[in-house]
Amino acid sequence: MLLRKYPIISISLIALMISLFVPGCGSAKSIGENTESITATTPVTIDGFTLLERTYADTDSDGTNEIVELYTSAEKIASGRIGWDTGHQWVLLVRKGEETFPLFNDRLQYGELQYWIVSFNKDNIQSPETTDLEKRIYVSISTDLDFRLFNYYWDKQNHSYTKEVMFNPQNQWGVRHFNQYNIPDPDRIEVEPANPL
Q1: How far apart are CA 139 and CA 146, in angstroms?
Q2: Domain match, 117 and 79 both
Q3: CA nearest to 85, candidates 111, 106, 105
Q4: What is the pTM of this model?
Q5: How far is CA 125 from the centre of its chain?
Q6: Helices 7-21 and 26-33, axial angle in degrees (round to 10)
Q7: Cβ(86)–Cβ(41) under 8 Å?
Q8: Span 75-123, pLDDT tens digits
Q9: What is the largest distance, in Å, between two alpha-carbon atoms of the chain?
Q10: Distance between CA atoms of 4 and 122, rounded to whole angstroms?
Q11: Are residue 100 and residue 186 in the same domain, yes or no?
């Protein structure tokens, strides 16, 4: 009876229900527009690049460590510091067995990339195993023009990493940042596997 009596309200109510419950509609669609799937590729060219960090961590919660590596096209100079200039290529890779997943591979003008690997006890388990934890790789990009934050996580069903844009506001005009890499001890680039938790 209500549907016949108030057609505009009925149509609005149906549209609201579709946007809330049908995948790809409403807010679910806007989340999809901010995500990208990253599949394994042929090896990324890093010949002549400088390895800034190598970390061993279980990024997909399967109980086995992957290798996360961060490279830049900037070269080390005699002092051991990086010879930064106006812009360089940055490459962030996850090596999972024989496969390589390029999470980031782009040029940054007056900028840098940093990453953090975070474990979440999603089900509040008393003594979680590594396979009980949800893993995320957070990446920040800062240049002289913008600041961006990305969230990467393993998609077991599609055998890929999903990249989610968390922060990338429009109309950024200038950014000051002060964490440019220097390598005082080249032997400390590699981080040994830690406790899996």
Answers
A1: 14
A2: yes
A3: 111
A4: 0.74
A5: 26
A6: 40
A7: no
A8: 888 777 778 778 899 999 999 999 999 999 999 988 889 999 999 998 8
A9: 83
A10: 46
A11: yes
Do residue 184 and residue 124 come from a single domain?
yes
Q: In what order do the strands lie in the sheet with 134-142?
A: 35-38, 160-167, 147-155, 134-142, 112-120
Query: Is 72 found in the same domain as 135?
Result: yes
Tokens of 196: 């899996």
pLDDT in tens, 136-184: 999 999 988 899 999 999 999 999 999 999 999 988 888 876 666 655 5
- As for how many domains the chain has, the answer is 2
Is 45 within the bounds of a domain? yes
Can you tell me which residue has the tokens 């940054």?
Answer: 108
SS (H, E, C) the chain: CHHHHCHHHHHHHHHHHHHHHCCCCHHHHHHHHCEEEECCECCCCCCCCEEEEEEEECCCCCCCCEEEEEEECCCECCCCCECCCCEEEEEEEEEECCEEEEEEEEEEECCEEEEEEEEECCCCCCCCCHHHCEEEEEEEEECCCCEEEEEEEEECCCCEEEEEEEECCCCCCCCCCCCCCCCCCHHHCEECCCCCC
